[in-house]
């Protein structure tokens, strides 16, 4: 069974960019529901004991859409939480150099990220990813993610589902994305992901599943609380 991961910061730590009310609603209700449904569906599919990454890929491979939607959303949200940090983390070092090489400047990257997110119709996610062609910005619909896209490794993601921002920004997705990139995005985490993609260090992985009886112990969280 998979366990809902704790946030790596307090609920009010991202204010005013993201309110404590939004994080309680987003994490404690939405993410928790995806975890619980994944546990039920993965057991029925005979995937108990598999990592969440394996469950997502197997569900995609077999065409089990219901399991894929819940498992991928469970993973996407777990990856989303460390993509944020109180006050954000500055874009510096090798990540900044890579962004400048690809997009011209950090500001131009932010503009393109916002443009991709605003232009995405409906629910989904907007990603900064890397691969054989270098950095790229993509968006995915609904639960779709980079785990099932060959040659792509996620560095940073922002949630485009309305529950991620509607309490704070109503229907102004553009304002949410601009504020998120400026004040909440964790570029240090993104740089560590970039290093992992290059074989230098360990990339993000969801915590190991617990025994079905609940007596197991989840693997340590990837990110320390800040």
Features:
3 strands; single chain; disordered C terminus; 2 domains; 3-stranded antiparallel β-sheet; globular; 8 helices; mainly alpha; 46% helix; 226 residues; minor pseudopilin epsh fold
Question: Any overview of this molecule?
Answer:
The chain folds into two domains: 20-83, Helix Hairpins, CATH 1.10.287.990; 93-197, Iron/manganese superoxide dismutase, C-terminal domain (minor pseudopilin epsh fold, 3-Layer(bab) Sandwich). Helix content is 46%, strand content 10%. Helix 1 runs antiparallel to helix 3, helix 2 packs antiparallel against helix 3 (65-80) and helix 4 packs across helix 5. Strands 2-1-3 form a three-stranded antiparallel beta sheet, with helices on both faces. It is mainly α and 226 residues long.
Strand content: 5-15%
The assigned CATH architecture of the largest domain is 3-Layer(bab) Sandwich
Mean of residue pLDDT values: 92
Shape estimate: globular
Number of E-state strands: 3
Spatial arrangement of strands, main beta sheet: 2-1-3
The secondary structure category is mainly alpha
Largest sheet: 3 strands, antiparallel
Radius of gyration using CA atoms only:
17 Å
CATH uppermost class of the largest domain: Alpha Beta
CATH topology of the largest domain: minor pseudopilin epsh fold
Number of helices: 8
Report the order of strands and helices. HHHHHEEEHHH
């Amino acid at each position: 069974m998979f366990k809902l991961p704790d946030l790596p910061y307090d609920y009010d730590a991202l204010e005013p960019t993201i309110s404590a009310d939004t994080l309680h609603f987003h994490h404690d209700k939405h993410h928790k529901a995806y975890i619980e449904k994944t546990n039920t569906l993965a057991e029925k599919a005979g995937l108990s004991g598999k990592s969440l990454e394996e469950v997502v890929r197997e569900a995609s491979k077999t065409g089990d859409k219901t399991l894929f939607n819940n498992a991928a959303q469970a993973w996407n949200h777990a990856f989303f939480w460390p993509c944020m940090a109180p006050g954000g983390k500055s874009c510096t070092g090798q990540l900044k150099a890579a962004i400048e090489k690809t997009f011209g400047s950090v500001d131009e990257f932010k503009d393109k990220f916002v443009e991709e997110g605003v232009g995405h119709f409906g629910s989904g996610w907007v990603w900064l990813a890397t691969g054989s062609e270098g950095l790229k910005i993509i968006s995915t619909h609904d639960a779709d993610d980079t785990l099932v896209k060959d040659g792509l490794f996620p560095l940073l993601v922002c949630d485009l589902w309305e529950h991620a921002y509607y309490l704070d920004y109503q229907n102004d997705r553009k304002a949410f994305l601009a504020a998120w990139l400026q004040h909440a995005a964790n570029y240090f985490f993104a740089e560590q992901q970039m290093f992992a993609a290059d074989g230098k260090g360990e990339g993000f992985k969801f915590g190991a599943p617990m025994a079905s009886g609940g007596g197991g112990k989840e693997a340590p969280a990837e990110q320390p609380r800040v």
